[in-house]
Amino acid sequence: MTTDLYALLDGGRRLPLVEDFYTIQGEGYHAGKPAYFIRLGGCDVGCRWCDAKFTWNAKLYPPTPIEEIVERAASLPAQAIVITGGEPTLYPLEPLTTALKAKGLEIFIETSGTNPLSGEIDWVCLSPKRQQPPLPEMLSRADELKVIIETEADIAWAEENAHNVSATCRLYLQPEWSRYQQIIPVLVEYAKAHPQWNISIQNHKFMHIP
Q1: Which of 55, 104, 113, 188 gives the lowest tally of CB atoms within 10 Å of its CB?
Q2: If DSSP codes are grouped into helix, strand and coil, which group holds residue 145?
Q3: How far is CA 122 from the centre of its chain?
Q4: Residues 6+ apart with CB under 8 A from 162
């Protein structure tokens, strides 16, 4: 995040909002749960298979006052908020999470773990990337470890991270979408042999929803 952009964010009272919308969580532990998504722009990891590359350049998304975001989130039946990106931990999230908690909302975050966590977060879904590994503090904070598997070799990366999370952290292997047909049989057999792992699939893509 550039100094100029940081100044425009006013300490987190404005954020580079890409989109916010009400949908069904499609992945991981909370799959199937109605949730309000807040997607922020900017990413410091840049996976080649990312399905949200349009979020990477934070400068494309003018800083939005958090009051506008919170008002929309609180107006809907959802009791769960998912802060995602991009990489949402690039920004100070205390003002946003404080305002959301004041409305009685539960807050989840999806992160690669490359930056320290800020704000009051109820559930951390950590999705570590090999090209820019997560901070040790984020591994210990993770409630859910969700590793994207593009090739069978990625399973070793998943296991490496699993050794460093807490004993209560839920473990998920998720096939990379463009490789789903090729990799899902491998993951099924691996999970059957290693039942500490669960399989996460992108249910929202099968449901054709955001």
Answers
A1: 104
A2: strand
A3: 13
A4: 145, 169, 171, 196, 197
Cα–Cα distance for residue pair 142/150, rounded to 1 Å: 22
* C-beta separation of 22 from 34 below 8 A: yes
The pairing of beta strand 106-111 with beta strand 123-126: parallel
Q: What is the residue whose two structure tokens read 């690669």? A: 112
- Beta strand ranges found along the chain (DSSP E): 14-24, 34-40, 63-65, 80-84, 106-111, 123-126, 144-149, 170-175, 197-199
Q: Phi and psi dihedrals of 167, rounded to 5?
A: -65, -20
Distance CA 186, CA 60 (A): 39
Give me 179's structure tokens. Answer: 């490789």
CA distance 210 to 207: 9
Three-class SS of 43-86: CCCCCCCCCCHHHCCHHHCCEEEHHHHHHHHHCCCCCEEEEECC
In a 3-state reduction of DSSP, which class is residue 123? strand
pLDDT tens-digit map of 103-159? 999 999 999 999 999 999 999 999 999 999 999 999 999 999 999 999 999 999 999
